[in-house]
Amino acid sequence: MAGSTGTAEGTSGTAGAEGSVPGSDKRATAIFDVEGVRAAVTGAASGLGFAMAEVLALNGARVSLLDANAELLDVAVKELAGQGATVTGELLDVADPEAVDRVMGRIAEREGGLDAVFANAGISRGAGIIVEEGQLENSDRAAYRQVIDVNLNGVVWTVQAAARVMRPQRHGRIVVTASTAGITTEAFCGYGYIAAKGGVVNLVRQAALDLARDNVLVNGIAPGPFFTRIGGPSGADPEVVAYWASTVPLGRMADPSELQGVVLLLAAPRASTFVTGAMIPVDGGTLIGPPISAYSRPDAGFVR
Ligand SMILES: NC(=O)c1ccc[n+]([C@@H]2O[C@H](COP(=O)([O-])OP(=O)(O)OC[C@H]3O[C@@H](n4cnc5c(N)ncnc54)[C@H](O)[C@@H]3O)[C@@H](O)[C@H]2O)c1
Q: Which domain holds residue 131?
């Protein structure tokens, strides 16, 4: 019963220790402390991955930024290092399982372990069902395969490599970037994207169950529409922005920095110690339903 004995509350809550609990220091700075956390983030050179790497690194974590784009990676690492953060960059294509094993193994060896891994890298290819070329009969198989290889297989290889390091440690946090498009329909997305994101949503639960016996927590984030590079040049198109905004009850797209509180929550060794297998929407309310403005007769209620 809550508050009856409170034995767990009195323990010290050593960072990353097996079965650790928040401890007696109730300050936010203690509960969300990521100082010294050894983290790796895939797709860290841009958008949501950069926001993840940034908030971890600027709060004292030792962050390995992994990305397939050398140019963007270089800029991202320099930007964080220039602010005094402890960061390194490694070129990595998550669709290549041997490369994922090699790079993650190298980082774990260099750092003496890994405390938090963010499987975030992702792409969007292939037209959505909103246009004729994206409809099921016409959808492009090459684009489908490419998206599955990065957004589904790439996440599986990353989570697998993280588990190889974390299970023997008997602690760790794995966080997968899914999408609202893995939970519900999204007319703007292609079949590869929808299938891959749906896949990782259940992968999170299965991996969480598998790794729970070894105190490794696996969770996911389901973002709604954020301003990043993923939409390509059309992402800046006012019509596209207006479309996305119209799907969100909060009525707008989001800035990547709006994800950073959840990143600390899931990565900090003393925060969310009893959260595993969860999928946290960061979506402005998208999953609760369309905004009221989407109803054509907002006045047509049953009560008059
Ligand atoms: N932006 C959104 O609205 C949104 C919504 C829901 C989910 N997401 C997901 O968030 C994640 C990050 O996307 P983003 O929006 O920040 O896009 P982004 O394009 O800004 O960043 C993605 C990063 O991943 C890297 N990348 C792509 N393929 C890779 C590969 N094979 N190996 C390693 N790195 C690779 C890119 O170089 C880039 O730096 C993706 O999984 C995406 O599906 C984004």
A: 31-225+259-281
Q: Which two tokens stand for residue 53?
A: 């790497």
Per-residue pLDDT, averaged over 289-301, amounts to 80
User: Which of 154, 165, 148, 176 shows the shortest CA–CA distance to 112?
Assistant: 165
CATH code, domain with 183: 3.40.50.720
Which mutation among 41, 42, 46 tests ligand 1's pocket best, with the greatest number of atoms within 8 A of CB?
46
Query: Structural domain tally of the chain?
Result: 1
Atom of ligand 1 nearest to the CA of 149: 31
Q: Helical H runs in the chain?
A: 28-31, 47-57, 70-81, 97-111, 141-147, 154-169, 191-212, 238-246, 260-267
Nearest-atom index, ligand 1, CA of 46: 39
Task: Copy the structure tokens of residue 194.
Answer: 């929808």
Joined together, the tokens standing for residue 209 give 């169950």
Closest CA to 229 of 65, 72, 66, 84: 72
* Residue 8: inside a domain: no
Q: How far is the CA of 47 from the centre of ligand 1 (A)?
A: 7
Task: Verify whether ligand 1 is closer than 6 Å to residue 48 (CB atom).
Answer: yes
Pick from 113-122, 215-224, 234-243: least confident = 234-243
The pTM of this model reads 0.94
Structural domain includes residue 63: yes
Q: How far is CA 50 from CA 117, 122, 193, 203, in A?
A: 14, 13, 21, 23
Amino acid at 242: A
Q: Is 290 domain-assigned?
A: no
The per-residue pLDDT for range 17-59, each reduced to its tens digit, is: 445 677 889 999 999 999 999 999 999 999 999 999 999 999 9
Residue 15, domain member (yes or no): no
d(CA 86, CA 84): 7
